């Protein structure tokens, strides 16, 4: 029997390549809809990914590239409004089937379940976006495959803080050494390692 009791998956870049042709495009749609002449190129978006979380990423972008755009206390509200629209665009794009899972992901999930290995998700993305990705790629029944789907603002600090991994461990009542995390980014790896979980 496997000594691993649970696999904990990151989402963006791990379950699916969602960033360049998914999230980035949706941020740009929300900006255009709001009448803002902001456009995140692939290159700029690559840099902006350093900041995890869509709302946090928008705030960082405005502070860095348009520091005089509006008073700092209005920034949080603007970022939230833009992000709400961005998420709507992103979920529509998923529903059109534009983004699939990375090769092998479905098989890995199915094999783990067959072997009685529990599954969880620990992501910086918003819950609605994660659920839509699962529904559009694996079907709504797949939501029940995961013991915990921990997303977005469920914890105060996003990755590279370990909070989201602590949250998952707590909910699953498992110790770090009995789990394995699958991540794609430096921030994600740092978060999982800070929580003491072995990480691929
Ligand atoms: C990826 C992120 C997210 C997405 C955008 O996190 O940092 O912010 O870029 O999603 P992970 P939202 O790889 O941990 O899943 O706009 O919903 O935040
Ligand atoms: Mg990722």
Structural class: alpha/beta
Bound small molecules, deduplicated: xylulose-1,5-bisphosphate, magnesium ion
Radius of gyration: 17 Å
Percent of residues in beta strands: 5-15%
- Major beta sheet summary: 4 strands, parallel
Report mean pLDDT, rounded to a whole number. 96
- What is the share of helical residues? 40-55%
Unreliable spans: none
The count of β-strands is 4
Compact description:
This protein has 200 residues and is an alpha/beta fold. 50% of the residues lie in helices and 9% in strands.
Question: What would the keywords be for this entry?
Answer:
200 residues, single chain, 4-stranded parallel sheet, alpha/beta, binds xylulose-1,5-bisphosphate, 50% helix, binds magnesium ion, 8 helices
What does this structure look like?
The chain is α/β, with parallel strands linked by helices and 200 residues long. It is 50% helix and 9% strand. It starts with 5 loop residues before the first strand and ends in a 6-residue tail after the last helix. Bound molecules: xylulose-1,5-bisphosphate and magnesium ion. Magnesium ion is lined by residues 10, 12-14, 184-185, 188. The site of xylulose-1,5-bisphosphate has 18 residues, from helix 1.
């Amino acid at each position: 029997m496997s000594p691993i009791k649970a696999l904990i998956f990151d989402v963006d870049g791990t379950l699916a390549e969602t960033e360049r042709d998914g999230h980035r495009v949706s941020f740009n749609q929300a900006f255009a809809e709001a009448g803002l002449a902001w456009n995140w190129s692939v290159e700029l978006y690559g840099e902006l990914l350093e900041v995890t979380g869509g709302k946090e990423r928008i705030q960082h972008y405005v502070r860095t590239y348009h520091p005089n755009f509006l008073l700092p206390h209005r920034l949080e509200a603007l970022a939230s409004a833009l992000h709400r629209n961005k998420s709507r665009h992103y979920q529509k794009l998923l529903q059109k089937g534009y983004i699939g899972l990375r090769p092998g992901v479905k098989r890995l999930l199915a094999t783990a379940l067959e072997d009685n290995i529990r599954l969880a998700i620990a992501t910086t993305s918003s819950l609605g976006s994660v659920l839509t990705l699962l529904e559009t790629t694996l079907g709504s029944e797949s939501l029940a495959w995961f013991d915990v789907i921990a997303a977005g603002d469920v914890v105060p600090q996003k990755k590279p803080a370990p909070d989201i991994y602590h949250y998952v461990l707590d909910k699953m009542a498992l110790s770090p050494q009995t789990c394995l995390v699958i991540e794609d980014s430096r921030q994600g790896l740092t978060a999982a390692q800070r929580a003491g979980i072995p990480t691929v």
